């Protein structure tokens, strides 16, 4: 079951899988929540190839842009003076009651491999150059190539922003409240990626909204409660072909590397999941203060958002499903807990899984009495059931942090990075067949008696049982 897009005269909304047009119940009640994460096509599943879906919305052969191989005119004409869209017209609120029709579509309609190749090459080319002022930047980015298609504009702005080293960008004679001041403000923390994207969209003639809310970022831990400025983040909604779509340039340009998420473990790369992300998927990590901008027919509450397991972008890339545990905190009264994640039956998705286990305290120790905590767990791949099963035996009562990782063995043909139209120009750690990427995180609270714990599993080379990477 795929998400549903409800299109009206001026906007589109996405309903989560398992929701209904006529339902007046909040979509994340127990019964509906089970439907969202069911293995029959819930969280992240889509049976429609991204490339075929993209072609329904974007016809690159009908583009009005000048994609000739020659260099662009770097300096704009003297009469070039772009004027931004009025802020009053940029932020029209979505109105669910104005959605008369329902159309089924893929949850990731714009993420095929080759369709944006020319746009991406242009964006990266501009990002590798230095511009003297904002007029020159927006000229080179949009108007020098005569880009008029809304999707092309959004794509080129997104990729420029994600590939540009903003901390090295410099303009002369910067005036207060000017676009130049906003772009340079990223170096001092006065501006955000979302503000820069918003500014570029205004001058490109795009309707855009700056969204403020909570996000489960580098400093988030499962079970955390959001209040005040803790966990505050900004991202964008942009109007493309009368549909509001969600973008987070900051998260697209930043990647978490390392066992313990923290600001020190953030490195730069590119994660295309956050380019026009599905609202029913982004809600697991992004919660706007204005519920209308969840773009869900049945918005979730803050408490429901806090309870959602913080699945990562790799979770959706690998088309996984949560089978047994959907909340971020697992309370186990038994000495062993069984966690099941489903993966696609398609043989193209050759996945391996592993996990990391640590005490959820200030030290974050990964050992218990000299024994690695991973000895108190094992992972088993059940090929016929298309599931990965994790058995965790907490060695003592208390709180633990459980991170589940996955990686795909299938190499990308011709060295191409998935979800990016250009080849080998930008690192994408998710596409590396040699590295595991986090797909889900839990806080495990063991409250059984101190004498009820089970012994660790026998030592072996790997904590994975059954068919694995070596077997394949």
UniProtKB/TrEMBL annotation:
Domain of life: Eukaryota
Residue segments, region Disordered: 68-106
Record domain Transglutaminase-like: where: 145-248
KY-like immunoglobulin-like domain segment(s): 302-448
InterPro entries listed in its UniProt record: Ig-like_KY, Papain-like_cys_pep_sf, Transglut-like_Superfamily_Mod, Transglutaminase-like
UniProt xrefs under SUPFAM superfamilies: Cysteine proteinases
PANTHER family: HILLARIN
UniProt name for this protein: TGc domain-containing protein
Originating organism: Schistosoma curassoni
